[in-house]
Amino acid sequence: MVFVHVCQGHQFEGIYIVTLFTGLREGEVLGLTWDCVDFRRGMLTINKQLQRERRGSGDYHFLPTKSGKTRYLTPAPYVMEVLKRQQDRQNQWKKDAGKAWNNPGRLVFTNELGGNLSAQTVYLRFKKLVAEIDCPDTRFHDLRHSYAVTALRSGDDIKTVQENLGHHTAAFTLDVYAHVTAQMKTESANRMQNFISSIV
User: Fold this and answer.
1) Which residue in 178, 158, 164 sits closest to 67, CA to CA?
2) Cross-strand pairs, 71
3) Which helix (H) or strand (E) holds 46?
4) CA-CA distance, 30 to 43, in Å (whole number)?
5) Which positions ≥6 away from 18 have C-beta within 8 Å?
6) Closest CA to 66 of 118, 36, 109, 25
7) DSSP codes joined into one string, 122-152
8) Domains of the chain, with CATH numbers?
9) What is the pLDDT of residues 88-119, one digit of tens each?
10) Percent of the chain beyond pLDDT 90?
């Protein structure tokens, strides 16, 4: 995948890679905290999102997930390795910043002083990256869709994909990704035809 290569070494590489391979929403990945990362079991707990106040101070606050429910993901080991590198990187920032370090929420993805990242900045840098690979219309949310399509085509059952995405029902997931499942049915029929042809 071209995008994976183009974002290597980018300031927000970890955010983009984790989103692409877990299907997290933007607020969920930006609101991921270290207490929700279990390296020993290789699991993530998704129980909140980071959102900016639309009025007033414009500060960022933790809010419940879109569904209001907590979900548990078991990402690919590669994702956990990306998070481990982010932890090492952040520990170095903390050491360099000294008393200036301030990350009270224990956010996974921060700036060099521990502050939360601006969703707008993360989005604009993403748009710049996808423009470099001639995909200027790609949205940050499309990383989530890419995860879902890849998971389905890799053989994950619809219930697992639904739970990982945090959709209310598997029926909703089926509706959203009907084009993928229809193509998978055709491919299944072709495989069955090949099998039949081999025995008759």
Assistant:
1) 164
2) 46
3) strand 43-46
4) 17
5) 24, 29, 32, 75, 79, 82, 83
6) 25
7) HHHHHHHHHHHTT-TT--THHHHHHHHHHHH
8) 2-199 (1.10.443.10)
9) 999 999 999 999 999 999 999 999 999 999 99
10) 68
